[in-house]
Amino acid sequence: MNQKSQVRAFYDQVGWQEVSEGVYQNAKYEDLRPVSREYIEKCHLRVKRHLPPEGKYLLDAGSGPIQYPAYLTYSEGYRYRVCADISIVALQEARKRIGERGLFVVADVANLPFKDEAFDGVVSLHTIHHLPRQEHPKAYGELYRTLKPGGSGVAVNGWGWARLSRWVNLPIRVRKTARKGVRTLVRILKRRQSPKKAGRAAAQAELKVAYADKYDYRWLLTHIGTEIPLEIRVWRSVNTSALRFYIHPWLGGRGVLRALFWLEERFPHFFGKHGAYPLVIFRKDA
Ligand SMILES: C[S@@+](CC[C@H](N)C(=O)[O-])C[C@H]1O[C@@H](n2cnc3c(N)ncnc32)[C@H](O)[C@@H]1O
């Protein structure tokens, strides 16, 4: 299976399957605990600040099912939200959320079937990282090509390497490596697993996570920023693993996250480059 087919199969068969009312399997990659809710929602709302507040068409490239309430606010001032995704299940779920206000297109973000300058605003969250790296410039190019002059767009994709995240996540990596070591040891000791079972486990593992290719801000600026004017600000400076590891109600988690959000607001460019997730803004001159 090539990478795109694997990603599509993952979202059709696993990621966008509802596990409970309005919650998808894919939400296991998010921290849904009440202690983190306010921070996460405020980070989601950051996207809206950099989109034109109104217009006819907003493109949501890799829309998924528009899974969080804050995501719905991006298109409040638009007549249509055009959801483009390679997963048909994503679009079926998105339709349940925005119905008539949505237009739904199965499409690849690196080859968008839309004419130049069709959209007043463009958003693409956590999608481009699913493409092979050599297609990332093409995908950003497509988002920019379809944007109207005077419009703006936002892309969010986690960094593969960022200075701050590296230190914040160090204890988590140590714990993960230790756990992996223990599991490997147990498997070696129990080598009696039948070949049939092992084959089934391998097939399941292939669909457990979708392929992703990530890098740091230098790669983005060198390979895409030279073609398209980009501004890098912070979307969220800590990832889900760090939230689950450090943030707890009994450790004043909500207050810690309020302080972190305040810092991110004061130094958006620093946290954008060195934290976990940047908010990449592109504007087209009128
Ligand atoms: C991590 S989910 C993010 C969904 C949504 N943007 C969000 O933030 O909740 C990635 C989405 O991108 C879609 N996707 C992956 N590769 C794509 C591609 N080449 N073209 C269009 N959509 C793609 C997947 O089907 C999935 O719905």
Structure description:
It is a single chain. With 286 residues, the protein is an alpha/beta fold. The protein has one domain: 3-Layer(aba) Sandwich (Rossmann fold). The chain has helices at 3-15, 34-49, 69-73, 88-98, 136-145, 163-168, 170-189, 195-206, 217-223, 240-246, 253-266, 268-274, and strands at 18-20, 23-24, 55-61, 78-85, 102-106, 119-125, 147-156, 230-236, 277-283. It has a seven-stranded mixed beta sheet. Strands 1-2 form a two-stranded antiparallel sheet. Residues 4, 7, 11, 62-64, 67, 85-87, 90, 108-110, 125-127, 130-131 line the site of S-adenosylmethionine (SAM).
Radius of gyration: 20 Å
Runs in which pLDDT lies below 50 for 5 or more consecutive residues are none
CATH topology: Rossmann fold
Q: What is the CATH class? A: Alpha Beta
* H and E order: HEEHEHEHEEHEHHHHEHHHE
- Give the proportion of residues in helices: 40-55%
Largest sheet: 7 strands, mixed
* Hetero compounds: S-adenosylmethionine
What is the terminal separation in angstroms? 43 Å
Shape: globular
CATH architecture field = 3-Layer(aba) Sandwich
Give the count of structural domains: 1
Overall number of strands: 9
Query: What is the residue-averaged pLDDT?
Result: 93
The CATH homologous superfamily:
Vaccinia Virus protein VP39
Our count of helices gives: 12
* Biggest sheet: strand arrangement: 5-4-3-6-7-9-8
Structural class: alpha/beta
In terms of DSSP E residues, the strand content is 15-25%
